Amino acid sequence: GHIYRINFDGSEEKMVTSIYDVLGYNPDMEKEDVYLDVHCIAVYGDKLLVNFEGENESYDVHTMLISIDDGEAVEIGNLTICDICFAENQIIFISDDGFVYSMNFDGSGVKCVSEVNADSVYAYNGKIYYCNNTGTYEMNPDGTMKHNIMDEDVKKVILYNNRIFYIQTIIVKEQFSSYEEYSVCSVALDGKD
Q1: Which of 37, 65, 172, 185 has the most CB atoms at less than 10 Å from its CB?
Q2: Measured between alpha carbons, how far is residue 89 from residues 13, 45, 106, 133, 175 in Å?
Q3: For residue 83, what are the contacts with CB-CB under 8 A and spacing of at least 6?
Q4: pLDDT tens across 10-38, in order?
């Protein structure tokens, strides 16, 4: 129920906020009796965007914008969000229907950008990238100019330094069973190299 920040070298761990406190959960209730399931978390400047389910007296979904510096939190919605990123003053996210949506930072203006079955979404250099079991795609933030970059079953995409980093799933079949192995791979923005 707590969100921490820490330096890359592991030093200076600091609690940013307690989700229990932000939601005003009953302080007499045992923390172990409160169910929290974080769906996704993303960083934008000095803010965290966190989407989670919580159950105390009732079941709720929360989307909160939290200041990393002082822990001040503002609830901006109650949609179930599976993945999230930021693009040109908008929040881009995948809802539980698999479609890609955009909304303003205050939670208003929710609109469907693309009716696709997306697993992961990332914004980079004015474009939106998403992946699913049929490949990795690029499109404009309004959903236009969509095109396929590569045809591989990809679980997560992150872009950095003009490269797409992704988790590839490989199904290993044995005589009586099968299992999944995962590899972290990278490719140029055009899907080559």
Answers
A1: 65
A2: 29, 11, 11, 29, 51
A3: 40, 93, 94, 118, 119, 120, 121
A4: 787 777 777 666 666 555 555 555 666 77
